[in-house]
Specification:
Number of domains: 2
Strand content: 5-15%
Strand order of the largest sheet: 1-2
Order of helices and strands: HHHHHEEHH
Number of strands: 2
Helix content: 40-55%
Distance between the termini: 81 Å
Structural class: mainly alpha
Number of helices: 7
């Protein structure tokens, strides 16, 4: 029995395929061997899924004086992730957290040339505000303008 079984169960709850479960558990920091034991599969199966998804951490041999590898990028700097055969990517949690995106949230996806941009709802709203601000003078309330226009139309129609 696994001490983390309840945690593993909650992480994999609702996931249908073993591959999805493997990726979700790895994303939460579970070791490949622990994932294989929990799912009752061979280590190589779990490893192959993680390698093809770009999630398998390479093992470093601990020699005397061997310091841990420094982080090479910050979440904001970008990183390479693996696109699977169905066109899906799994964005590392650190990147989602840095962007203020949480699981189960809708995001705005936009294609521009040879890139794909993913925006949180907050960022998409801010982008829309910036676009509108180019066309609306400071101090002007679009709501007040709309109400005034509707009142003028109602007076014109009624009188």
């Amino acid at each position: 029995m696994y001490a983390d079984k309840l945690d593993y169960d909650s992480i994999t709850n609702g996931l249908r395929t073993k591959s999805d479960k493997i990726r979700a558990l790895a994303h939460e920091g579970a070791a490949t061997a622990d994932i294989a034991r929990y799912l009752g599969i061979r280590y190589q199966h779990a490893r192959n899924v993680l390698v093809s998804s770009g999630l398998h951490a390479t093992r470093r041999h601990k020699d005397a004086g061997d310091a841990p590898a420094p982080a090479t990028t910050s979440p904001a700097a970008g990183d390479w992730v693996m696109l699977d055969g169905a066109g899906r990517i799994q964005i590392p949690g650190e990147m989602l957290q840095a962007a203020g995106i949480t699981g189960g949230e809708q995001v705005h996806v936009r294609v521009g040339g040879d890139s794909v941009e993913i925006l949180s709802q907050r960022a998409a709203l801010e982008r829309a505000r910036q676009i509108v601000s180019k066309f609306v003078p400071p101090g002007v309330s679009l709501v007040d303008e709309l109400i005034a226009e509707r009142r003028r139309e109602a007076e014109h129609e009624g009188g």
